């Protein structure tokens, strides 16, 4: 595998950083190529602004259109071009982050906002009677896979089907489906560690073992079977799931999993 690890934690001695280091070591030892984007260490700029698009920035700023023109002209900033190049190089992307306010840390969302530009990650492909652009299973990053490695403060029952925080699959759906599957990346089931604020150093070896095992299985892990957009499950252009395709008792985000 050619694996890009996108890491988002400010503390090099944190649990998240230990999991990132373990992933580098485990995958490298197993003969895989690994590159790391350590966003805090890189002082990643997380905000989109006119400076991102140089002479292609319009006034008023049009983020989608301007980013697309700058992308097509090869004129995005060097930091963004480097991340796009890493994504094109990788066949597998691991995102390592703590769950903060039900979501990824802002620096990682800012990486997505700036790197997933128009014409690169969205606004790709033809629009016709049978295609609504290339997205949700197609697109620039199709054929690549991703794994979210997420540490969570709350205990597992709080994230179960009836748990007060909502099911973890629902909380991660915006990332799995809206950010990754949209430009074509197929996510596999996430590696989620619960109750991490109470994790003791004595418990860490078990966590490390589970993470190593998961990493070594990654190459052969099937992705989450999200429905692809342009392959008959959705009417075009309404993009509603066709009648009768919903499995009994399933609603909400679960409708979009085959
Ligand atoms: P650390 O604090 O670095 O480590 C946790 C424990 O792991 C340590 O106490 C230590 O005993 C052990 N450990 C760490 N590294 C090692 C090592 N190398 N070897 C052995 N043991 C080690 N939680 C939720 O459930 N939902 C939320 O919405 C949510 N929002 C949050 C918002 C913010 C702004 C913050 C700060 C926290 C939030 N949390 C939430 C909690 C958060 O998810 C956890 O604090 C986080 O996942 C823990 O990861 P960490 O890397 O920061 O852990």
TrEMBL record:
Domain of life: Bacteria
PANTHER family, alphabetized: NAD P H OXIDOREDUCTASE-RELATED, NAD(P)H DEHYDROGENASE [QUINONE] 1 ISOFORM 1
Every Flavodoxin-like fold domain range: 1-215
Family: Belongs to the NAD(P)H dehydrogenase (quinone) family.
GO molecular function terms noted in the UniProt entry: NAD(P)H dehydrogenase (quinone) activity
Origin organism lineage: Bacteria, Bacillati, Actinomycetota, Actinomycetes, Kitasatosporales
Keywords noted in UniProt: Oxidoreductase
Pfam family, one: Flavodoxin_2
Name listed for the protein in its UniProt record: NAD(P)H dehydrogenase (Quinone)
InterPro entries in UniProt: Flavodoxin_fold (IPR003680), Flavoprotein-like_sf (IPR029039), NAD(P)H_dehydrogenase_qn (IPR051545)
GO cellular-component term (any): cytosol
Provenance organism: Streptomyces indicus
């Amino acid at each position: 595998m050619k694996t890009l690890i996108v890491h988002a934690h400010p503390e090099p001695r944190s649990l998240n950083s230990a999991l990132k280091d373990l992933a580098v070591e485990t995958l490298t030892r197993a003969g895989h190529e690994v590159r790391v984007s350590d966003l805090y260490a890189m002082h990643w700029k997380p905000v989109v602004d006119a400076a991102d698009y140089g002479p292609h920035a319009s006034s008023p700023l049009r983020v989608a259109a301007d980013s697309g023109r700058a992308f097509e002209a090869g004129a995005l900033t060097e930091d963004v071009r480097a991340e796009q190049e890493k994504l094109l190089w990788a066949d597998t992307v691991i995102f390592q982050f703590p769950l903060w306010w039900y979501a990824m840390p802002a620096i990682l969302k800012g990486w997505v906002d700036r790197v997933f530009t128009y014409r690169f990650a969205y606004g790709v492909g033809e629009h016709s009677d049978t295609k609504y652009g290339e997205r949700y299973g197609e697109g620039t990053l199709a054929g690549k896979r991703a794994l979210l490695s997420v540490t969570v403060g709350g205990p597992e029952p709080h994230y179960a089907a009836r748990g007060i925080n909502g099911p973890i699959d629902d909380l991660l759906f915006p990332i799995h489906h809206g950010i990754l599957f949209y430009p074509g990346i197929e996510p596999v089931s996430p590696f989620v560690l619960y109750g991490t604020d109470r994790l003791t150093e004595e418990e860490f070896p078990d966590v490390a073992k589970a993470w190593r095992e998961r990493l070594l299985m990654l190459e052969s892990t099937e992705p989450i079977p999200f429905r692809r957009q342009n392959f008959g499950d959705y009417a075009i252009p309404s993009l509603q799931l066709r009648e009768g395709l919903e499995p009994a008792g399933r609603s909400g985000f679960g409708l979009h999993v085959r």
